[in-house]
Design goal:
This protein has about 160 residues and is α/β, with parallel strands linked by helices. It has a single domain, classed as Ribosomal protein L30/S12 (60s Ribosomal Protein L30, Chain: A), CATH 3.30.1330.30. The protein has 6 helices and 5 strands; from the N terminus they run H-E-H-E-H-E-H-H-E-H-E. A 5-stranded mixed sheet has the order 1-4-2-3-5, sandwiched between helices.
Length: about 160
């Protein structure tokens, strides 16, 4: 192994950790500003109606979801749409952590008990009509995606770990 390979591999691990932290910060900030769309169906509908409002698409799946053919078809369609629109896509492992970051769905506890679990497999970070979501976290995640594409990794992958 060369020195460049050794240093490069350490740097890529640090960048992935930094990008994971940035993604977590971005999701929390976007939720506070009401700039998130959560759910595969909801995301597809928004991308059909207002594709220019989408800044980032997060496709989340754990190992047990990899065998879900319907989910993988949805992911393929969402990735294709994002590619056509020039939207960065990040594949994330760690649905539990994503659920922690987003918290329970906004509804009274009695109504929440009757509803099916929240679909966290797709999360879109969007702009709101009256303001733009500009943050260092968005820039770091976008830079990570661009760097991955430069390394022929067309679907950047991050892991969110439980805390």
């Amino acid at each position: 192994m060369t020195l460049e390979e050794l240093v490069g591999s350490d740097m890529s691990h640090d960048k992935m950790g930094s990008a994971s932290d940035a993604l977590e910060a971005l999701v929390v900030a976007a939720q506070r500003q009401d700039c998130l769309t959560v759910g595969v169906l909801e995301s597809a509908q928004l991308m059909n109606v207002a594709p220019d409002s989408v800044l980032l698409c997060v496709l989340a799946a754990d190992a047990e979801d990899e065998g879900d053919v319907a989910l993988q078809i949805h992911f393929t369609l969402l990735r294709a749409f994002c590619c056509d629109q020039g939207v960065d896509v990040v594949r994330v492992a760690g649905l539990g952590r994503l659920g922690q970051l987003l918290g329970p769905p906004p509804a009274p506890p009695a109504a929440r008990a009757r509803e099916p679990p929240r679909d966290l497999h797709c999360v879109l970070v969007t702009t709101s009509p009256c303001r733009t979501l500009c943050s260092d976290a968005l820039h770091r995640v976008s830079s990570y995606c661009e760097e991955c594409r430069g390394n022929n990794q067309w679907e950047p992958r991050l892991a969110l770990s439980q805390r």
